[in-house]
Write a structure and sequence with these properties.
The structure holds two protein chains of two kinds. Chain A is mainly α. Chain A contains 17 helices and two strands. Chain B is mostly helical. Chain B has one domain. The radius of gyration of chain B is 29 Å and the shape is elongated. Classes of the chains: A mainly alpha, B mainly alpha.
């Protein structure tokens, strides 16, 4: 223990005298703050944008309420609209689905810039619509990526550790007093370990020092202490893993030149080459889909349903939505074409759900392959763990798509059941729609 | 100088470790090139299959109202260039499918990046990844001790006695290691050249790409050897070179990319759409609302045909009205898309100018640009697609207006021959000449860096002796 303690003390003196190492630590500190600020800016931008959407929707619903109050049937330039009919009333019911950014977003932006995070749901929507494209952004900037906190931890930190650790054990050889060290310390490895521990303490302290203010700013420390704990746990494991790798290098190789070359090679292999190889292999095995089946379903299969005889549509609707048997229209002897037309979206939605399910299955196969590749791409593992905790990974957006699908289900079900029950919509009923179709 | 270069090569040849590394890198470069070519071929086949499928659907329309066909629309697929296998640039993160229909300009969707978990922050293992990130590092390792070793061993005195100057030593040693880099580069480019279809433009791009990489390698090598001459020991040279490499290749591109976006902010999608909707409803200048525009059009058409009611027109007024609305919508789109494009161009120029402090950025820009996977090519595709959409919809609206039907006859249908007569979308990359104009800054930055370091070495190190 005393050897470790004395190693830590001597390393402290060495560190204070080494401007390169102090510079590296300052660079890490600045980069971490910069990364956190980038994430926080995105968090704020998305939060503000969602507020703007809410405000816009409020204006739309206020307008409809005003139409009810003034006895109007809809906008003046659209005489065919009648908001007393469930179809039109629901058409004019804003049904936004927004993916509120997680309070941990400042820590890991992940894939948040590659997906849309809000959608106005209509009875014709799907979770794969074009309006779910990512925010308008410079594609080259997206390709280069954002320097966020997670990037600083996963990519910069090992490089900083390299600068801090490369001459531990090696410098003594460079300066020719290696033998002196062997004579004065009882265990050479413990002596190196003590020096490593010193940097572990410094790095962990710096991470906490930079991250905690942002955790307080977004209230993630109070709202999601479990998630925060997990984020820091994975971060700690990552730092320790790199230190363990570098420790082996420090022990196995001698001379700071050799040690630094091996460390750089390992850093490059683990952070650039292996993730790149995984990416390439995944694309070869699971090429990007062009969604032809989805597009066909949306454009043609939907039309085919609409073109079916009304009787057939009615039967299909009853079969897939048995509650309609209790509706007013069910017992009608003649078919009301308008009611049937207003309910077709229920059937189309069912068909689209099946198509999107197949897409999700394909994507899951790809993700499963990626997870298997974690064995050769450990940085990818930590990267996706960080993103998952910060709700910025593929699965967080899959949950968002599920939420969209649920909202579509609700909307088309309401449209069908209200139409079949021949509901005459008034202001109170409209408020009910708003409540049902909003968070 | 020739003797020094030859001597350096002899030394490099004696290094067994380097020999093993060279065989390894050559094998990796060949393997990566072959795999990338295969991937692009596969991607191209899938894209063509999807495009053909949609075309078949369009050509299979038996009978349909022209306006219904405009709503039915079609889909365009962003192609991948043969040379795109070298550097995928923005291809992975931008959408690949664009819906073409009447009334609206849709977003390009379904990017590869949105179809799975995140795999890599630096992209796939393409030739560009190895040649941009790894080979320069290898060159640094080869170069960092070439002058400092001479100083430490005292051989430098001997070289000075034999008449060599420091400048000559630096330049000669640089040339020797640079040639090694060029050899590795040649392996990749040879495989690429073999895989290319006989296309003059693509071959030209590839050759220029070779020159660009060669320039960058020269900067890396001479810069490292210059440091090797200036700094006291190997460790200091290696630390400085590695720090410079990390800063140039890993961190500055991200930081400068983010800064460019903050300096020239793009509107949010929500703001963009709201502004478009408002302009479309109120008029671009805010004083020409849609109902007023329609009234003026109606009066003009009635006057032209000398009738008082649209029902009396020998043509279908609905088609004229819809085309006029399209054209107005196109103006609105041009204005807003134009604004965004201007901002994107400003961001790009800012980023290109940062090549003054970081030549890696110039290399990265030129690599993407020459491979046809940069923002300019992406925007060019979008513009060509929009042009196609406009012609496509105009043909349908004109047919609706002048194809024989009268106003209000929505049941009137066109036959299969008409739909077949509408040509499919064919995308061609912009010519190399126009591209080079956009990348003048990057080329100048790379040439400037190479010239500047050479000048410094030639003039500042001419008489200096490190003994």
């Amino acid at each position: 223990m005393s050897l470790i303690a004395s190693s830590i003390r001597s390393e402290n003196i060495h560190f204070k005298r080494n401007p390169y190492k102090i510079g590296a630590l300052i660079l890490f500190f600045v980069a971490a703050i910069y990364g956190l600020q980038n994430g926080y800016t995105l968090y704020q931008t998305q939060t503000e944008e969602i507020e703007k959407i809410k405000l816009k929707n409020k204006k739309t619903s206020d307008q409809v309420v005003q139409w009810f109050a003034e006895g109007k049937s809809g906008p003046e330039n659209r005489p065919w609209v009648n908001i007393r009919e469930p179809y039109w009333s629901l058409w004019y019911t804003p049904s936004p689905v927004c993916k509120k950014p997680s309070s941990l977003m400042p820590f890991s932006i992940g894939q948040a810039e590659q997906f849309g995070y809000y959608k106005q749901v209509t009875n014709r929507s799907t979770p794969y619509d074009g309006d779910l494209a990512e925010e308008i952004a410079n594609p080259e900037r997206l390709a280069i990526g954002t320097l966020d906190f997670s990037f600083v931890i996963l990519f910069l930190l090992p490089a900083i550790l390299l600068v801090l650790l490369f001459n531990i054990g090696g410098l003594e050889k460079d300066l020719g007093f290696e033998q002196l060290i062997f004579l004065s310390v009882t265990d050479h490895k413990i002596w190196i370990l003590g020096r490593y521990l010193y940097y572990l303490i410094i790095i962990v302290a710096t991470i906490l020092l930079t991250a905690l203010p942002y955790a307080l700013l977004t209230k993630s420390l109070l709202q999601d202490p479990g998630k925060m704990f997990h984020f820091f746990l994975y971060t700690f494991l990552y730092v320790v893993s790199w230190m363990a790798i570098f420790f082996i290098v420090s022990v196995a190789f001698s001379g700071s030149k050799n040690i630094s070359i091996v460390m750089v090679a390992l850093w490059l292999t683990l952070t650039v080459v292996l993730p790149g190889t995984t990416h390439q292999l995944t694309t070869l095995n699971y090429p990007a889909t062009y969604m032809t089946e989805l597009l066909d379903a949306k454009r043609e299969e939907a039309d085919k349903i609409s073109e079916l005889p009304k009787e057939k549509i009615k039967n299909l609707l009853i079969a897939s939505f048995p509650e309609l048997r209790n509706s007013l229209h069910y017992s009608d002897t003649t078919i009301d074409e308008e009611i049937i037309n207003n309910s077709v979206s229920y059937l189309v939605n069912n068909m689209m759900k099946e198509t999107t399910r197949k897409i999700e299955v394909l994507h899951e196969e790809k993700n499963s392959f990626i997870r298997k590749m974690y064995l050769i791409n450990p940085v990818g593992f930590f990267q996706n763990k960080h993103n998952g905790i910060a709700d910025t990974d593929y699965y967080s957006f899959q949950l968002f798509r599920n939420k969209i699908q649920n909202r579509i289900n609700k909307k088309v079900s309401l449209m069908a059941s209200e139409s079949w029950n021949k509901v005459v919509v008034d202001s109170v009923r409209y408020q009910h729609y708003l409540k049902e179709l909003n968070d | 100088m020739k003797t020094i270069v030859a001597n350096e090569w002899k030394n490099l040849g004696r290094d067994k470790g380097l020999l093993v590394a060279s065989v390894f890198f050559a094998a990796v470069l060949i393997a990566v090139s072959i795999i990338s070519v295969k991937e692009v071929k596969q991607s191209k086949e899938n894209q063509q299959k999807a495009q053909q499928h949609m075309r078949e659907k369009w050509e299979a329309i038996d009978s349909m109202n022209a306006h219904s066909a405009a709503h039915y629309g079609t889909y365009l697929y962003k192609p991948v260039t043969a040379i795109g296998n070298f550097d995928e640039g923005v291809y992975n993160i931008t959408g690949k499918v664009l819906r073409i229909e009447g009334h609206v300009q849709n977003e390009i969707v379904y990017s590869e990046a949105s179809q799975s978990l995140l795999m890599s922050k630096f992209g796939k293992l393409k030739s560009s990844l190895i040649l941009q990130y790894i080979i320069p590092l290898l060159l640094i390792f080869l170069a960092f001790n070439s002058m400092s070793n001479e100083k430490e061993s005292g051989r430098v005195k001997l070289l000075y006695l034999q008449g060599a100057t420091t400048a000559q030593l630096i330049i000669s040693k640089s040339i020797a290691i640079w040639i090694y880099g060029i050899l590795l580069l040649s392996i990749t480019f040879f495989v690429q050249l073999l895989s290319l279809p006989p296309d003059y433009d693509q071959t030209q791009r590839l050759l220029l790409l070779f020159v660009v990489f060669a320039l960058y390698y020269y900067i890396i090598v001479i810069g490292t050897i210059y440091l090797s001459a200036k700094l006291k020991n190997n460790t200091a040279v290696l630390t400085m070179s590695l720090a410079g490499w990390m800063l140039w290749t890993i961190f500055l591109p991200k930081i400068l990319g983010n800064t460019s976006e903050k300096a020239f902010r793009l509107p949010s999608r929500q703001a963009f759409q709201t502004a478009m909707q408002e302009d479309r409803a109120k008029g671009i200048d805010g004083h020409n609302p849609s109902d007023k525009r329609e009234k003026e059009l109606k009066e003009k058409v009635l006057k032209e045909y000398n009738v008082t009611d649209v029902k009396d027109l020998p043509i279908n007024y609905d088609g004229i009205r819809m085309q006029a609305d399209e054209e107005y919508g196109n103006q609105v789109w041009d204005k807003h898309f134009g604004n965004n494009y201007t901002l994107l161009k400003k961001q790009k120029t800012f980023y290109q100018l940062s090549g003054i402090i970081n030549p890696f950025i110039s290399l990265q820009n030129l690599s993407m640009g020459l491979c046809g996977t940069d923002m300019y090519h992406h925007v060019h595709f979008l513009q060509q697609a929009e042009l196609y959409r406009r012609n496509f919809i105009k043909m349908l609206n004109d047919r609706h207006a002048f194809g024989g039907s009268k106003t209000g006859e929505w049941e009137w249908t066109e036959n299969n021959e008409f739909f077949k007569s509408i040509k499919d979308f064919e995308y061609r990359n912009p010519a190399l000449g126009s591209l080079l104009e956009s990348y003048r800054i990057d080329l100048l930055c790379l040439i400037g860096w190479a010239a500047l370091i050479t000048t410094i070495v030639l003039f500042k190190e001419k008489k200096k002796e490190y003994v």
